Amino acid sequence: MRHPFTPALLAVAAASILSAVACDRTRQTPAHAGPNPDVGFVPSPQVVVDKMLELAEVTPKDVVYDLGCGNGIIVVSAARKGARAVGFDIDPERIRETQDNIDRNKVGDRAKVVRHDIFTLDLAGADVITLYLLMTLNERLIPQLEQLKPGSRIVSHNFAMRGIKPEKMVTLQTPTGEHRVYLWRTPLEKDETYVKEPDVVFVPTPQVVVDKMLELAEVAPKDVVYDLGCGNGIIVVSAARKGARAVGFDIDPERIRETQDNIEKNKVGDLAKVVEQDIFTLDLTGASVITLYLLPSLNVKLIPQLEKLKPGSRIVSHNFAMRGIKPEKTVTVKGPSREHTVYLWRTPLEKEVPSE
User: Fold this and answer.
1) Cβ distance 31 to 20 under 8 Å?
2) Residue 185 pLDDT > 60, yes or no?
3) Which of 68, 233, 268, 277 is the most exposed place for a label (fewest CB within 10 A)?
4) What's the per-residue H, E or C state across 176-216?
5) Tell me, what DSSP letter sits at residue 279?
6) CB 325 within 8 A of CB 348
7) Where are the beta strands (DSSP E) in the chain?
């Protein structure tokens, strides 16, 4: 499934995001967020972190700034290479987590974490900048990045920088999927034709989380399941295996092909299909179950469509709530590498009562 969703936003993100991902990110990462950041924390695999620091040629003489430091994996890894490392985030939980990681790894002499909005930072003191932010947020940082001294390196996990040509881009395969790492060096090379990636990243949902989503939604053969942002089709296929009719919607042609391949490979084409369409233009009234893995702002954007579902329809979301709508149930699922949250709502949607 998709961590945010359509290119327009994406707006997998972000048109509406004014946050910067947390560092280690999927993160589903961002650091300029308030109490309800429009982005999720998705850990970056250690192998990706190692490649980022390798491409940036990090040595003991360097100062590394990690913008949106998440759990501090990059800060700690850079400090282990002898560099001085500073993680920046605005989320108090991420700050605590990074500090705990620094303390646990005994690198406090070379690493620290600071609570600060990354878009107001003076970056001139850094030799290396590490990022795991949405493309639109990378773009927003360009004026600050242009103030770096010549020869400074910038590395980004998964997201390019529209209008700026990377010096190098490498692809890594991990057990959780494919990852890209981009390298730029200052002075930045402008290239207005360069748009390598859409503003969205595909983050596979573990099967155990998919199973819990379908269990909470009480999916049965009588149901019609719409998966909004279907990614590799894991939910579509899993719902079809339960006998339900399942339709996946996505706007990314690569995800469409991947879902169709998954449907064919699992021989569920009699019950499942995939459609290339912008989810915000969909009539959802034909569904009895809606599955989501979108940012909070995108869930909120869907509310007018979701309110038209017939009474008793179920909506389940991986990791992201729906601001202003009270969930019927929230459960935590232990995945292969971290904990996941699954939310359930039932129509008619129950509005949250603002606290006084």
Assistant:
1) yes
2) yes
3) 277
4) CEEEEEEEEECCCCECCCCCCCCCCCECCCCHHHHHHHHHH
5) G
6) no
7) 63-67, 84-89, 111-115, 128-131, 153-157, 168-174, 177-185, 224-228, 245-250, 272-276, 289-292, 314-318, 329-334, 339-346
Report residue 331 as tokens. Answer: 């459960």
6-17: per-residue pLDDT in tens?
A: 333 333 333 333
Average pLDDT value for residue range 179-205: 74
pLDDT of residue 355: 60
Cβ 16 vs Cβ 8: under 8 Å: no
Give the integer Cα–Cα distance in Å for 76 and 346. Answer: 43
Q: Integer distance in angstroms from the first to the last C-alpha of the chain? A: 37
Taking the whole predicted model, whether its pTM rises above 0.85 is answered as: no
Q: What is the helix (H) or strand (E) element at residue 103, kind and residue range?
A: helix 92-104
Q: Which parts of 228-351 fold into alpha helices (H)?
A: 234-241, 253-265, 296-306
Nearest-angstrom CA–CA distance, 188 and 55: 16
Contact (Cβ atoms closer than 8 angstroms) between residue 112 and residue 102: yes
Rounded to 5°, the CA angle 98-102-103 comes to: 120
CB within 8 Å of 35: residues ≥ 6 apart: none
CA 253 to chain centroid, in Å, comes to: 19
In contact, 187 and 248? CB cutoff 8 Å: no
Does residue 5 surpass a pLDDT of 80? no
C-alpha span between 260 and 275 (Å, rounded): 9
Structure tokens of 165?
Answer: 């040509």
Chain-centroid distance, C-alpha 245: 28
Rg (CA), the chain: 21
- Count of alpha carbons within 13 Å of 323, Cβ hemisphere only? 12
What are the pLDDT digits (tens) for 19-37?
Answer: 333 333 333 333 333 344 4
On average, the pLDDT of the chain sits at: 85
Q: What confidence tens digit (pLDDT) does each residue in 64-81 have?
A: 999 999 899 999 999 999
Contact 30, 21 (CB under 8 A): yes
